[in-house]
Amino acid sequence: MVNVDVLVCGPIFTDIVFSNVPRMPKPGEEVYGQGFEFTCGGSTYITSVAMARLGMKIAVAAPLGNDFLSQFTKDQLQREGLTADYSYIVDRPMRQVTAAINTEGDRAFVTFQDQLDEAGYQQHLLALLDTMDASMLIVNAKPEFVPVIEKARSKGMSIVLDIGWDDEWIYSRALKQLLQLGHYFTPNLAEALAITGKSTAEEALDVLCGIVETPIVKLGAAGAIYPTVEGVGRIVGKPVESPVDTTGAGDNFLAGVLTGVLKGWGLEEAIQLGNYCGGQSVLGIGGTAASPTWEQVKTEFIHQLGGDGR
Fold this sequence. Notes:
This is Carbohydrate kinase family protein. The chain is an alpha/beta fold. It has helices spanning 43-53, 68-79, 118-130, 146-154, 173-179, 189-196, 201-209, 249-262, 267-281, 294-305, and strands spanning 2-9, 13-21, 35-41, 58-61, 63-64, 88-89, 96-103, 106-113, 132-140, 158-162, 184-185, 214-215, 217-218, 223-227, 232-236. It has a six-stranded parallel beta sheet, with helices on both faces. A four-stranded mixed beta sheet has the order 3-2-7-8. A three-stranded antiparallel beta sheet has the order 13-14-15. Helix 1 (43-53) crosses helix 8, helix 3 packs parallel to helix 4 (146-154) and helix 8 runs antiparallel to helix 9 (267-281). The longest helix is centred in the C-terminal third of the chain and has 15 residues, at 267-281. The protein is globular and about 55 Å long.
């Protein structure tokens, strides 16, 4: 039986990131950016790497193929002390690519994905759960993952739900029902408002508290809010001087929060760690270039809490 802290499911993308682009090009135009990175990304990869750097034992279960981009992903995982041994490997191309353009403080994306055999992937994950003990499962809040979620819950795992923006799914009643299977859910403000139909972060948090055990609403640079016995707790974000790229800031935030929880910290301190990790991550191009290590956390963050860094 394999013992890990977290099992992370979902696709890993190859990220082609152009940063410091002065403006979006018009049709037929060419615009030069001042920064570039070719790396891996997507929430599965970023969260896994960020948590591994924080000392957590992570199992990555991503769909990969026989193409050079999948091999690049395997190599990148290995560089981070992770492995593709738990992944769903198919004997054909499984290209998952995102081109990101960072301009004027915002981002635009173009993405391509080869078709995934969803049924085969789900069977792989179910079989993997028979061989693995984990404290947490990170998985996308989609109907096809329900059997995996239910099996993980039966093994005592805490379920951490992720969500990508889908105009139809995010407003659906079915999503709200699925979220009831989760223990932790950290939507950004736009997602929280869309899911709940509310107009403020506090109202959205109140609704989410009736759906999922521990919701945390991310407010970007403003920090995050979370439920407390008294009502709404707020962790104020700290300004980051000269941010380079905001790609993956939310995933680094999640990595910090979950690491704090797994270390037995209170939710407030865990969210503070999440804010620190999210803030550090924007200092590099791509989602993990500046993800902090646990040594950085102990040096730059732990002393602020008066802890010993366990």
